[in-house]
Design a protein that fits this description.
With 146 residues, this protein is mainly β. The protein contains one helix and twelve strands, in the order E-H-E-E-E-E-E-E-E-E-E-E-E. The chain starts with a strand and ends in a 6-residue tail after the last strand.
Length: 146
């Protein structure tokens, strides 16, 4: 289940569509599928109000986790505090071109395990646009290979 929030003005809606992000809505059923191929993972998140697909892999320099969301590549460092993983946005590229860090805004991205569930909280805010997207909730972990 996920709670999805985001600004309701046209520029935020347009950018969410461009990046393949879901639209806001409360209590959205959510399904996550992870496909692994070599050192790359494709995460497909099926929300009630849209699908979000991204590709995750180690960056070429080996220092970051690179997430590709449509035309946007985001580079994160990960830190661990007990059971919690904190993703810290370091830089981004749009259509292969560097984006000034100030334009990337702030990203809160945390995940942990609680009571056998994967719990997550993501909140992305951009200068002038405000909250692009925030989603939080939980997933019950299953493995279809069993």
């Amino acid at each position: 289940m996920a709670q999805v929030e985001g600004a309701s003005h046209f520029p935020a809606k347009l950018l969410r569509r461009l990046l393949g992000l879901p639209e806001p809505g409360k209590d959205q059923p959510l399904e996550l599928t992870i496909e692994r191929e070599g050192g790359r993972e494709t995460w497909t998140r099926l929300f009630e109000n849209g699908q979000m697909r991204s590709t995750l892999e180690r960056s070429a320099d080996g220092k970051h986790l690179r997430e590709q969301l449509g035309p946007m590549a985001l580079y994160f460092t990960l830190s661990r505090d007990g059971e919690t993983i904190d993703w810290q946005l370091k830089r981004g590229r749009f259509l292969g071109l560097p984006v000034p860090r100030a334009l990337l805004g702030s990203v809160l991205s945390r995940s942990t395990a609680e009571h056998g569930r994967y719990v997550f909280h993501i909140d992305t805010r951009l200068p002038l646009l405000g909250q692009l997207i925030a989603y939080r909730g939980w997933l019950e972990i299953t493995d279809e290979r069993e």
